[in-house]
Write a structure and sequence with these properties.
- GO terms for molecular function: oxidoreductase activity.
- Belongs to the thioredoxin family. DsbA subfamily.
- Keywords: Disulfide bond, Membrane, Oxidoreductase, Redox-active center, Signal, Transmembrane, Transmembrane helix.
- InterPro entries: Thioredoxin-like_fold, Thioredoxin-like_sf, Thioredoxin_domain.
- With about 270 residues, this protein is an alpha+beta fold.
- It has a single domain, classed as Glutaredoxin.
- It is about 35% helix and about 10% strand.
- The chain has helices at about 35-50, 120-135, 155-170, 175-180, 190-200, 205-210, 215-230, 255-265, and strands at about 25-30, 75, 100-105, 110-115, 145-150, 235, 240, 245-250.
- The termini are far apart.
Length: about 270
C-alpha cells in the first residue's frame, strides 16, 4: 500500500487528466489480470447454471465485504499523484436512448462509464459519496451522462447481484436496486434476499424478476460488460472512462471534477 499527495490544483488542469498507477481506493482483480479470463467465465457459468461455448474472457477475485475496509485483493491509499497525460481508450459510450443503466442526457458532452462490482467496498464509497455530487453538479445540467457496466470480479455473489440488478433494470428499477445494494445490502445474494431487495427497489412484477434471475440473455449481457472492461484494460474496480480517459479507483471528487471540467472546456461547454 502506498501513499501519495493530493493533486495540487484539481479544479484547473492544464493537460488531459488521468489517474496514474498505483491507483488508490480500488478493489483489484485477484490474483492477477493475466489469469482472469477463464476464471470469471467459470464463475459466471457455475454461479448461474449456464453451459459452456463462450470463449470470451473475464475475471474473478476473492470475495470481499462491501464495507470500506481494505482486505485481501483490495488496495487503498489516501489521495494520489498529480494527474498525468495518457493515451485515450476507444470510445465505448453507448448513448442509447432509454438505457436503464444510464443517467443523463444522451447528447451530454461528457460521458463517464463506470465499471463496478456491487460487493466492492470502494465502488460503494463512490456510489454513496461522489456520484450524487456529480449528478447534482453535472448530470442535472445536461453536461454529464453516467453509464454503468457490470464488472462482478469478486466471485459468485457478485455475479448474482449483477444479474439481479439487470433483472430489476428489465422493470426500470436498476438505479433503485443499485442504491439499495450500496445502502448496505451487498450480502443479499440468495434468491429470497434478492427478491426482498427488488421489492425495496420498487420492482412490481416479482414473479418476472424471479424468472429473470435465470435468464440466459441477462447472463450474456453481464458477460459482455465484463469483456468490455477487460478490453478497456481495467484490472480493478471501480474504474472509469471519462470521454475515453481512464480513472482508477474511488478518487476524491476533485479528480473527477478536474477531468469533467477539462472535457467540457475542450467541447466548448465551459
Amino acid at each position: 500500500m502506498t501513499h501519495s499527495p493530493q493533486p495540487s490544483d484539481p479544479a484547473a488542469p492544464q493537460a488531459p487528466v488521468v489517474v496514474p498507477p498505483p491507483p488508490p481506493a480500488r478493489t483489484r482483480f485477484f490474483p492477477a489480470v493475466a489469469l482472469l479470463g477463464t476464471a470469471l467465465i467459470i464463475a459466471l457459468f457455475a454461479a448461474l447454471g449456464t453451459s459452456g461455448g463462450d470463449d470470451r474472457d473475464g475475471g474473478t477475485a476473492a470475495p470481499a465485504p462491501a464495507e470500506d475496509t481494505a482486505g485481501e485483493g483490495e488496495s487503498r491509499s489516501e489521495g494520489g499523484e498529480a494527474p498525468e497525460e495518457e493515451d485515450e481508450r476507444p470510445d465505448l459510450a453507448r448513448r442509447t436512448a432509454g438505457d436503464p443503466f444510464a443517467i443523463g442526457a444522451v447528447d451530454a458532452p461528457v460521458v463517464m462509464i463506470e465499471y463496478a462490482d456491487f460487493r466492492c467496498g470502494y465502488c460503494g464509497q463512490f456510489a454513496r459519496e461522489t456520484k450524487p455530487e456529480l449528478i447534482r453538479s453535472y448530470v442535472e445540467d445536461g453536461l454529464l451522462r453516467i453509464e454503468w457496466r457490470h464488472t462482478p470480479v469478486l466471485g459468485e455473489e457478485s455475479v448474482a447481484l449483477a444479474v439481479a440488478s439487470h433483472a430489476a433494470a428489465e422493470q426500470d428499477r436498476f438505479w433503485e436496486f443499485h442504491d439499495a445494494v450500496y445502502g448496505g445490502h451487498a450480502t443479499a445474494t440468495d434468491t429470497e434476499s434478492l427478491v426482498a431487495l427488488a421489492r425495496q427497489a420498487g420492482v412490481v412484477d416479482l414473479d418476472r424478476f424471479r424468472a429473470d434471475l435465470d435468464s440466459r440473455e441477462i447472463q450474456r449481457a453481464v458477460l459482455q460488460d465484463v469483456q468490455e472492461a477487460l478490453t478497456a484494460g481495467f484490472g480493478s474496480t471501480p474504474s472509469f472512462l471519462v470521454n475515453g480517459r481512464m480513472v482508477i479507483g474511488a478518487q476524491p471528487i476533485g479528480w473527477f471534477e478536474a477531468i469533467i471540467d477539462d472535457e467540457l472546456r475542450k467541447s466548448g461547454h465551459a
